[in-house]
Every structure is written in C-alpha cells, then in structure tokens.
Write a structure and sequence with these properties.
Blueprint (H helix, E strand, L loop, with lengths): L4 H9 L19 H18 L8 H14 L3 H8 L3 H18 L3 H8 L5 E10 L13 E2 L4 E10 L5 E4 L3 E2 L4 H8 L1 H7 L4 E2 L11 E2 L19 H25 L6 E2 L3 H18 L1
Parallel strand pairs: 1-6, 1-8, 6-7
Antiparallel strand pairs: 1-3, 2-3, 3-4, 3-5
Helix pairs in contact: 2-3, 2-10, 3-5, 4-5, 5-10
Length: 286
C-alpha cells in the first residue's frame, strides 16, 4: 500500500531526526523598577510567613514573571518557556501573586480619604473587554455594552488632577450605565458626603452638588423645533471642563496599557481580582 500524499509531504517538512526547538528572544516592558521592587518585597514577606524552604524561582524572578503576565498579556505556555519552569508552576505563581496584590488594593473609604486632600478628583467609567461569558439563558446579555458593541466589564475610575490613579471600583457587567454603576459602588454618595469636588462627563448628570458635569444643550425651541445652541460662555465653560477631565482619560489609557486587561481571557468572576492587582501596582509605581 502506498503512503498517503499528505503524510509524505509532512515527513519531508519535519524529518523524524529533526528536533523541534522553542525560539527565545529578548524583550522589554515599560514598567518602573519600583513596581518590580514592591511585588518582590510582598512575595518575600509571604514566603517568610509560610516558612517556604525552596522555590524554583526566586521572589524577584517570580515578580518579573507576574508583571510580564499582566503587562504584556503573555500566556502561561510562553512564560513557562521563557522562565524554564512548568506551565502549572506558572499558574501557581501567578495566582499566588494576584491574591496578595488584590488584598493590598485600597477600599473606597481609603480612596475618599486620599481624594479629600486633593483640589478635585476626576470620575470616569471605562469598559474592559472580555470573551469568557456564558451564553446559556441569555447570561451574556448583561455583559454586552450597546455603546461599545462588545461584551465587557464596567469599572469606575477615580483620578487626581495630575492624572494619578486614586481608586478603581470592582467590576460590574458591561451593560450597566456609568451612573448606575457609580451609585451601586457608593461612589456618588461618598463624594457628596465628603463634599469633594468631582469632575465628570454628562453620564453622571444629576449626581449631586459635588459632581460637576458639562453644560448640556438647552431644551427644544418651541418655535423652530430644534435644540437651542449653547451660548459662548457655556461653550467656554465646557472647554475648561474638558481640560480638567483630560488627566482622567489618561489614567484609563494607562490602565489598558496592562495588556491583560485589553481583552480579559478569564471568567468574569475572577476579573475583579485581576483589576485589583493591577490597581495595586499602578498606585505603587505612581
């Protein structure tokens, strides 16, 4: 019996005596050394508390592995190849570090105490895309954002006037409106109770005296049936408001520089821990 043509072609391309080699290449990350130092110290302290006798990687190498996972979105298999460890070892190292970092994330009360020392803060919401959403019983509908036309998770971000992160909320399904999400987390009530001036966009209209939003178009003119245009002074106010809100947009962009959050591959139930871990590293490196 003659050999199948397809098998003969494969044998010619990959001869039996040819060994498959994994390719390695040097790479870098735009992360401060302070971020690596903070995570390394946390891991060393945790190992001392557990009286760990030996690990395949040192605390510093484990910290580098975890930061590569978060910053560059590397897969477990690629990290296992680069650090010469098993895939299961990479998984354990990542889960261990995420739990420690998430436990260090500030609470809303701590964030409000920090915000009270600022001239004002910026409140904005953003969507983190996700692809691990169950389809049964229309479960995925709650995660679908009509604005962004994709499934995702809603997070509320508080930043200071110069664009430094103050707090990131836990995740909610992407279909939630920014105002509803902020109220559910207690952000609106906390900011109004502390009388902290907050710059936000029109999604937070009606948030209270402390929430400053841009001027909206006036009501419909009964004579022409069209919206009345904003006056020159109102447009100047909106321009100044947008200039103040700009640093908050920069924080959202920096959040998505951590590529693991550009499209979350884990379950929505685990995404909150992922966001909290990245928040801890962003605040530590500020």
């Amino acid at each position: 019996m003659s050999e199948a043509p397809g098998r003969r072609a494969i044998a010619e391309i990959n001869p039996p005596d040819q060994e498959l080699h994994v390719l390695l290449y040097p790479s870098g990350m735009s992360v401060s050394t302070r971020t690596l130092t903070v995570l390394s110290d946390v891991l060393r302290r945790h190992r001392r508390e557990r009286a760990t006798r030996w690990r395949r990687l040192s605390a510093g190498r484990q910290a580098l592995l975890v930061i590569a996972y978060l910053r560059k979105g590397e897969t477990y298999a690629d990290l296992a190849c680069g650090f010469a460890v098993g895939t299961s070892t990479v998984y354990r190292y990542v889960r261990e570090a995420l739990e420690l970092l998430a436990a260090m994330a500030p609470t809303l009360e701590q964030a409000i105490a920090v915000a009270a020392r600022k001239a004002f803060v910026i409140l904005d919401g953003t969507l983190l895309r996700i692809d691990r959403v169950g389809m049964a019983a229309d479960y995925n509908r709650g995660f679908y954002s009509g604005k962004h036309k994709c499934h995702g998770l809603n997070v509320q971000v508080i930043a200071d006037p110069v664009g430094r992160l103050v707090w990131i909320s836990p995740v909610l399904p992407g279909a939630r409106h920014d105002m509803g999400a902020a109220r559910e987390h207690g952000i609106i009530d906390a900011l109004n109770a502390a009388e902290i001036t907050t710059i936000a966009d029109t999604a937070y209209q009606g948030g209270g005296a402390a929430i400053r939003v841009p001027q909206r178009r006036r009501r419909v003119d009964p004579d022409t049936g069209r919206y009345r245009r904003l006056s020159r002074n109102q447009k100047d106010v909106n321009t100044a408001h947008a200039r103040q809100r700009g640093p908050g947009e920069r924080v959202n962009a920096e959040l998505k520089n951590w590529r693991i959050l550009r499209k979350i591959r884990s379950s929505p139930n685990h995404a909150a821990e992922l966001v909290a871990a990245v928040q801890t590293l962003m605040i530590a490196s500020a």
